[in-house]
Amino acid sequence: MILTPQIWVRLVALVLLTALLQVTFFARVELFGTSPDGAVLVVMTLGLLGGSVSGAVGGFSIGLLVDCLLMQTLGAFAASQMAVGYVAGRYRESVGRPTRGAVPLLGGVFTLLGLLAFAAIQVGTGIDADVSPLVVRDALIKSLLGALLALPVFQLVRLVLRPALVEDRPGGRRPVAPRAADSRG
Amino acid sequence: MYRKQVRRRRAVLLLLVVASLTLLSLYFRESEAGPMHRAQRGVATVLGPFAEAADRALKPARDFVNWFDDTFEARGENEQLREQVAELRDELSRAQTQAGQADELGRLASLTGGGLVPPGFEAVTARVVGRSPTVWYSTITIDKGTSAGVRVDAPAIAADGLAGRVSAVTKGTAQVKLITDPTSSVTGRVLPEGSVGVVEPDVGDPQNLFLNYVQRGEEIAEGQNVVTAGFAGDALDSLFPPGIPVGRITDSSLEQQQAYQRVELRAYADLRDMQFVQVLVEK
Is residue B207 part of a domain? Predict the structure, then answer.
């Protein structure tokens, strides 16, 4: 990802907008008894397009803003989103940019990962809750919704960050795994 | 170059992990008035108007998505309610059937327990397990046979009155020829006067019977009861014991040039819908 001042502005706007949308839209709509998680998909996309550092920083920022807006434990959602962004970035760095077909699958997987990470942090910070069948059902439906929304969110974020993406520039080439690039010298 | 990237990546990750842990631990340790809480409230205050504007702007979109969910849920609820209604309807019909059967058995017991069963006989209660499919309602099948002492020609009594007589029997079942069968005839007596006639079916109307061969001079009035006459003779005995209610007179007509009256009566027993009968068997 090429970071110019213009791209920084776009990134900041994207982070702000994602946090606001997460709080005012995604968290407040209900589909099949649960709410879709839009923030985790944006974080995943940041990781898949920009790598582990972009993913982790983007995830941490979005998560921190959501923590502030919802007045919840500061750092909890931030840490979980950071984990998602980092792992998505590592996926990009080791496997390469995902194909269109893989994006929904990754959307489902990273939504589940985000939920598990957030649950682990909550349990670690003293929330004593049982894993009821309802929670498992909720998590699975959230993951399915994540899979459904992953491709549109991916394309939208990609459109916003297009000037910063090497492979989307005219004459740009598809990224290769770092190890392969390293071996070429 | 790659190592530098890896080092940078690890450093950023470490920094973020440390930042998260610091935030979490400080947030838990400090009071509501602490700097972390104040900073959180400050950010929330700054972003509050934006959140409010976004909230208003996105309301139609939220309502649209929620409408889908509500519709889907309402459809699910509708199906659930339909299933519940079906279950309740089943339960109700079962309860009503049981109540009807209990009522029928009660009336049957009081009928046969009131001195109708002749000495040396006992009443065996049997469930109706089959019905002739014709419109004549001529026969029924019951779940008691020779093993319960049921014999051919044994009288069968329904909850409200005479049903018929056993026409065929197996070990576990028996066929009862109803009084509405075209070939059925029962000697009946009109109460209280005692006029005697032969009860025969009005073929095609399962509830309507005729009392034929009543002498012209006998006074018959609507509403009088007809019971089995139950005669006994040297050569021929009646199959039915005396006093079993058969029906109530609904019409009597005296036609010119006829030696006998033709009396119409309505059977007491609901021959179309009975669930149980009692068969009189020898002890």
Answer: yes
